[in-house]
Amino acid sequence: MNFMDIFKLLLGVLLAGVIGLGAAQMADLTSSASVPAKMAYPIAADADSSQAANAGADTEKAEESVLDLLVTASAEKGKKVAKKCTACHTFDQGGPNRTGPNLWDVVNKAKASAEGFSYSNGLAAMGAAGEVWTYESIDKLILKPKAYISDTKMSFAGLKKVKDRANMIAYLRSLSDSPAPLPTDAAEATDATEAEMAPASEDMPAATDSEAPADATTAQ
Ligand code: HEC
After folding, report:
1. CATH code at position 139
2. Residue 139 burial (CB < 10 Å; 0-12/13-18/19+)?
3. Contacts of 69 (CB under 8 A, 6+ apart)
4. Which atom of ligand 1 is nearest to the CA of 87?
5. Better-predicted residue by pLDDT, 124 or 20
């Protein structure tokens, strides 16, 4: 054998190997690749579309304010959200303080005013400054307590979803003998007569009507 013969032989072996390998790969590809190739499409399409939908929903929600949502919010759904609070709070009238203060009638109530509860310095200072729990400030607290009151004793991560917060606040609002006016009520009241606004915004003493309180609480 001369050099050329050896070369050809080696080339032949090499070629045969390459072809054999190629064929094996082709066989692999055709048998196994067909499955993922088919599945890849729907999965990718699904992930894309649902991500897009989620992103859209999230940005929409981020733009919505709790005040806007409050008008259509559900106190019933809020009651379910409140299960996240009941480890620390009672919601019934005259209920005891636990790790957190009782939350009956907290909307428009002076901050840090639950009797016998030892508040953080931060929240106590807000109360001392005469601040009350508005819809907005409750929203900020339950979104992220630590961000609202840096030294808060409320060790709760927060409610990320604006809908949850709106429903939660709607529930808190319902826990009252005379629920605070909704944001739109208040806005309309300023345009409307003073006579209508007064009873809506003032807290009427519970003694003035004997039946309404019971109805109000059960109806909501
Ligand atoms: C781990 C216990 C815990 C959980 C869970 C919790 N809270 Fe609190 N909450 C507290 C404590 C403690 C305080 C007092 C905060 C302070 O002094 O800074 C507080 C204070 C509050 C206040 C202010 C009351 C006042 O008298 O000024 C509101 C309103 C409130 N929480 C609402 C909620 C809501 C709504 C939830 C559920 C979504 C919730 N909390 C979940 C412990 C908790």
Report:
1. 1.10.760.10
2. buried
3. 162, 163, 166
4. 5
5. 124
**Which residues form the domain of 203?**
66-219
CA 139 to chain centre: 11
Q: Which residue's alpha carbon is nearest to atom 29 within ligand 1?
A: 138
Ligand 1 nearest atom to the CA of residue 114, by list position = 26
What pLDDT does 17 receive?
A: 65
Q: What is the pLDDT of residue 202?
A: 47
pTM: 0.65
Q: How many domains does the chain have?
A: 1
Q: How far is the CA of 119 from the centre of ligand 1 (A)?
A: 10
| Ligand 1 neighbourhood includes 180 CB (under 6 angstroms) | no
- Kindly give the distance from the C-alpha atom of residue 185 to the centroid of ligand 1, in angstroms, as a whole number: 27
Q: Over the stretch 185-203, which tens digit does the pLDDT of each residue have?
A: 655 555 544 444 445 444 5
